[in-house]
Design goal:
The structure holds three protein chains of three kinds. Helices cover 36% and strands 26% of the residues of chain A. By secondary structure, chain A is an alpha/beta fold. The model of chain A has no long low-confidence stretch (mean pLDDT 89). Chain B contains twelve helices and no strands. Chain B is globular and about 75 Å long. Chains A and C meet through helix 7, helix 8, helix 9 and helix 10 of A and helix 6, helix 7 and helix 9 of C.
Chain lengths: 255, 299, 318
């Protein structure tokens, strides 16, 4: 469904743009419906850049990203089928508007002719899918809601459209431990209903918990790519092994 | 439904309390209160004052160099040439506010257009607008004005305001561009793009309202700056040719050796008025900054 | 005892009332001990850390006593605390590495810092360079600007600086949060190394990440809504948690090896109570699966094991 073929992104840096920096270099992978692909990497690995390129928010320097065969473009047609949730819930909402504003913009952009009743139904369905009561979130300002609630509102926003692909860029790294798992479980439920998810994270345990396929990135290149149990159980690349051994675990001490 | 009905009064309370909170801090901030009072008083004077002037501003005929007196309504005395200083003063004060509003307004509009576009678009558009800003910034305004003045037979207050507006916007554009940069990197702008919003709408509906306090303060600075520039231009003789302004009063008083002749009532009122208006606006601005920025508030 | 805190209360004043961020906390940290202070956002752990050094002008000391090495720490008074800061108690605040002045070379910043403390930078320079090398940094790093360094390097420099005068107590607030996994390990091990070499006598590590604490801490203290929930050695907390909050917190952490398709982990429903008007009785009552009528009365913070303390009616007796 989503295909990346030899995708690269280079920036010009230095005085007068004399040098180039390759943020992403020759990345290829595919995502099928109902599959969760974890894009794991440390800072500077290019994972967020790949996410933005998949969404059409950043241009591709070379290579191709295709969605159902057609090149990805930042257009309304594409955004009916692919949406995103970002890392910082408080930055994703315009602080001067109520939280409903994000729903209203989706309505204006994609459902301008829908009646109030039909819209209300759609909204309730989306909020139900993320386990939120309409009374709890409608009419509230972002600062009155918790980070977990805000992230769920953003997932509900994405579900208002019948999307096939969701890009989740570090969506739980700013949440508390007790709410993280609930949002993750929500993603798991959505996946079981057929949604494809690109799950970008730096946290290996989270990637392991939720994903079917894992891609490990290092400085813009893929170092390991395969089904999650294989990558975590029998890592082949030295970098993956080093990463796994550095993850702090409750019941296992670093030697 | 009863649940949502119960939410309504709670919401209204929240909304009001955010506004109330700002008002609370605004009323307690000395700088803001003092600044607003002085500026407001001067504005009132400008609006109401002309109703009390007994003689037309430019008319000769009064006693020459009369000190301020209650006779005949020469409350601020007369000039060396027998003109009513009070009448000139209130006319000039009104003009000052007009220039401030018009000149400051034009500068604000142009600054916002250029600043928002450059900040949001970046890339080539940003480079071009930057170049434009820099060019306007380094144009020698006095030389330009002298050239313009030599071509125009009559210069009115509109011309002066437009000129000031079109030459003082660069720093506003720069500042707005910088603020826009920082807001554009926030995720809610990406969210708006993912909802299919167009650029102009994003700028006016998502970004500008976030900067509303900043834009308000910027306008106040442009307003005060326009008054100051107008006074300077008037003082060197490039003011409007068909009326009298505060700067022109000061110019004429210097030309006619009012200082040496101890005609203090001719140059002191306009000078003090300009100082009072512009100074109070700047003080108001500092106070506003403290009110809008929660980190600077003291409980 | 290095540090003794007795019934410390620190509130934030606001227009709507007092936010009771730290509401009666007592703890002890022994010489050579690294204590982990765990909890979620808004529980008061950062406030507690900063209260021990009185560095935030917005917080007000309301009551309680702090003793360090037998001496009273005047945590109610900003200027009285000044001689103790850096020399006896040192703090690495959250986001410290982003707070380095971008226009100063590091060496200059260090000199200014020491000068402000009345210490001759020249005397300490050899020791500074030795410590930098110990953590894997070249002394030439002092000639660089902060922007030329990676997050891990900046964090290491901040840690070296904070411990330059060998303070008795180091308070480290979320020092591993913004770092990559491999750098996290390096910084955490560095902290333990400092304690082992005697650069600091004891440390309080504040974080939300229990798994990091499991690696470096000797004891763990769990805070909830301004009060202490549980305290014990790392083994006691990880293997035998007594407080329902601790249990649920541990239960919500996905370890490598746990997969959604096999085992669905559960979070903790609800939100922490507002600290403007905290509820009476146990503050975890609303979210606790074991809550009963008893919990309307606040449970005492009592012992339930060798060094295991818990504030819950349902916890085991010792």
């Amino acid at each position: 469904m989503l295909t990346l073929e030899h995708v690269s992104k280079t920036y010009r840096v230095g005085a007068f743009g004399s040098k180039t920096l390759a943020a992403v270099a020759d990345v290829s992978f595919t995502v099928e419906p109902g599959e969760v692909l974890a894009l794991i990497g440390e800072s500077g690995s290019g994972k967020s850049t790949i996410g933005r390129m998949i969404l059409g928010l950043t241009t591709i320097t070379s290579g191709r990203i295709a969605f159902d065969g057609a090149d990805v473009t930042p257009s309304k047609e594409y955004y009916r089928r692919a949406q995103a949730v970002f890392q910082d819930p408080f930055s994703s909402f315009n602080p001067i508007f109520k939280a409903d504003h994000v729903f209203a913009t989706v309505r204006q952009g994609f459902f301008p002719h829908e009646t109030n009743g039909a819209w209300r139904q759609r909204l309730t369905r989306a909020l139900d899918a993320v386990c939120l009561c309409p009374e709890d979130v409608l009419g509230k300002f972002p600062h009155q809601l918790s980070g977990g609630q805000l992230q769920r509102v953003l997932v509900a926003r994405a579900l208002l459209l019948d999307i096939e692909l969701l890009v989740a860029d570090e969506i739980i790294s700013m949440l508390d431990a007790s709410t993280r798992i609930d949002v993750l479980n929500l993603l798991g439920d959505l996946k079981n209903r057929g949604l494809a998810i690109v799950f970008i994270t730096h946290d290996l345990s989270l990637g392991n918990y939720i994903s079917d396929t894992t891609v490990i990135l290092r400085q813009g290149r893929i170092v390991e790519h395969g089904p999650t149990p294989d990558v975590f159980g029998r890592p082949e690349h030295e970098y993956t092994k080093a990463l796994l051994s550095a993850v702090p675990q409750l019941h296992r001490r670093w030697s | 439904m009863t649940a949502t009905a119960a939410q309504e009064p709670v919401q209204k309370l929240e909304r009001m309390s955010a506004f109330r909170e700002t008002l609370h801090f605004a009323l307690r901030n000395r700088k803001l209160v003092v600044g607003t009072s002085i500026a407001g008083a001067m504005l009132l004077f400008a609006l109401v004052g002309p109703a009390f002037s007994r003689h037309p501003a430019l008319q000769y005929g009064g006693k020459l160099s009369l000190a301020p007196t209650t006779k005949d309504g020469y409350w601020f005395g007369t000039t060396l040439l027998g003109q009513d200083v009070y009448a000139q003063f209130v006319t000039g004060l009104r003009l000052a506010f007009t220039v401030g509003a018009l000149g400051g307004g034009i500068a604000a509009v142009v600054g916002m257009l250029v600043g928002f576009t450059a900040g949001y678009r970046s890339g080539v558009v940003d480079e071009v607008l930057n170049m434009l800003t820099n060019i306007v910034l380094v144009i020698p305004t006095f030389a330009l004005l002298l050239v313009i003045a030599s071509y125009l037979k009559v210069r009115g207050i509109m011309t002066e305001s437009i000129f000031i507006g079109l030459t003082s916007w660069p720093w506003a554009a720069r500042a707005i561009r910088a603020q826009t940069f920082s807001l554009v990197s926030r995720d809610f702008v990406d969210m708006a793009r993912l909802s299919g919003r167009r650029t102009a709408r994003i700028i006016f509906e998502e970004i500008a309202p976030n900067m509303s306090s900043y834009l308000f303060m910027m306008f106040i600075l442009l307003f005060g700056g326009a008054i100051l520039i107008a006074a300077t231009l008037d003082f060197i003789g490039l003011g409007p040719s068909n009326t009298i302004s505060l700067g022109m009063m000061m110019q004429l008083s210097v030309q006619n050796a009012a200082l040496q002749l101890h005609l203090w009532w001719w140059f002191l009122p306009p000078g003090l008025a300009i100082m009072a208006v512009v100074g109070s606006l700047y003080v108001m601005n500092v106070g506003l900054d403290e009110v809008f920025n929660p980190k600077l508030r003291t409980l | 005892m290095t540090l003794v805190v007795d019934d410390l209360k620190v509130y934030y004043r606001s227009l709507s009332g007092d936010v009771k961020a730290v509401d009666g906390v007592s703890l002890e940290v022994a010489d050579g001990e690294i204590m982990g202070l765990a909890g979620e956002s808004g529980c008061g752990k950062s406030t507690l850390g900063k209260a021990l050094i009185k560095l935030d002008s917005r917080m007000e000391w309301i009551g309680g006593h702090v003793t360090l090495d037998g001496q009273d720490l005047p945590v109610w008074n900003d200027s009285a605390m000044n001689p103790h800061r850096f020399a006896d108690v040192s703090l690495v605040p959250q986001y410290a590495m982003s707070a380095l002045n971008p226009t100063r070379k590091l060496g200059r910043m260090v000199r200014e810092l020491l000068h402000a403390r009345g210490i001759d930078a020249h005397e300490l320079l050899p020791e500074l360079e030795r410590r930098l090398q110990l953590v894997g940094l070249e002394p030439s790093v002092l000639d660089l600007y902060p922007i030329e360094l990676s997050g891990g390097m900046k964090q290491r420099i901040v840690l070296v600086l904070s411990t330059l005068l060998n303070p008795s107590l180091l308070i480290a607030d979320e020092i591993t949060s913004a770092l990559d996994v491999s750098t996290q390990k390096a910084v955490a091990e560095m902290l333990v190394g400092f304690r082992d070499r005697g650069f600091v006598k004891s440390a309080i590590v504040i974080t939300h990440d229990l798994s990091i604490l499991a690696q470096v801490a000797d004891t763990i203290l769990v805070m909830y809504a301004g009060k202490l929930a549980e305290k014990g050695t790392v083994d006691e907390i990880v293997d035998d948690p007594q407080h329902p909050y601790t249990k649920m917190l541990i239960g919500s952490l996905p370890e490598v090896g746990v997969r959604f398709s096999e085992q669905r982990l559960a979070g903790i429903a609800g939100r922490p109570p507002s600290l403007l008007e905290p509820p009476t009785g146990c503050r975890f009552r609303d979210r606790c699966p074991l809550a009963s009528a008893r919990c309307a009365v606040e449970p005492p913070y009592r012992s339930c094991g060798e060094s295991h303390l818990v504030a819950c009616w349902e916890a085991k007796e010792c």
